[in-house]
Amino acid sequence: MQLCLDAQSRFEAAGIADAYNDATRLFLHALEQSLGKRVPRHQLAQHLKQQAPAELSTAFASMVAARAARQPVSQIIGRRAFWEHEFQVTRETLDPRPETETLVEAALARPWQSVLDMGTGTGAILISLLAARPDATGQGTDISTAALDVARANAAKIGVTATFTRADWYAGVEGRFDLIVSNPPYIALDEMAGLAPEVRDWEQASALTDGGDGLAAYRAIAAGARAHLAPGGSVLVEIGASQAPAVSELFAAQGAVTDVLRDLDGRNRVISAVFPAK
Fold first, then answer.
1. Where are the domains of the chain?
2. Which of 8, 258, 263, 265 is the most exposed place for a label (fewest CB within 10 A)?
3. Binding site feature residues for S-adenosyl-L-methionine
4. pLDDT-based confidence at 44, cuts 50/70/90?
């Protein structure tokens, strides 16, 4: 018990908002490493009453130090829950976030048989879509070979068949798709300093920002969308809360009918761009 209380106090001193839950998640992971199996959360209390073995205390202390340095819990334990699965995460990938599930939900509400996920990272979006629609085909692209390795491992673990290709947006992509999805780097360079340390200091910068105004990826995606979509195809892209007008305009200029989708907190989160068949 004292181990978790001490960790919680240390996290609170470091300015971590959800100190109790973080301490609990890390202790459960340390238990998993010590016992060789996962421990359900409801069994935590009985383990906290017991004297912690030395190897458990050592492993937990290392995790606590990492979290106090503001490393995200998901990176420390190496996984993050998203939609219906758990995904391996590393410092080379963007940590899948609950708000991105808005995009997955929107995609699964429309008809498609082929999907392209640009800037796939962990593969969380693409794999979630293909797991829910096993008769469909999908390709994930990323400029990072390390991220593609993570995505391939996640697909294999979850049992999804997908193609993963190194590409710089459309450069390296062949064929046409019913649906294009992306959660691209959309944070403007001048906004990076204001991010939480867990994001700014620990996540892959190239997955967060384009080094400019945060709209470069949308310009590229919108400009090449019609050439890579099947007739009547559509695009779904995640956006920052203030970017809806600018991103909608980029797709409308290419002939798309656009709509803004909100996440569960009511924030503008996804732009839907449907390209009518000519």
1. 2-69, 82-274
2. 265
3. 119-123, 142, 169, 183
4. low
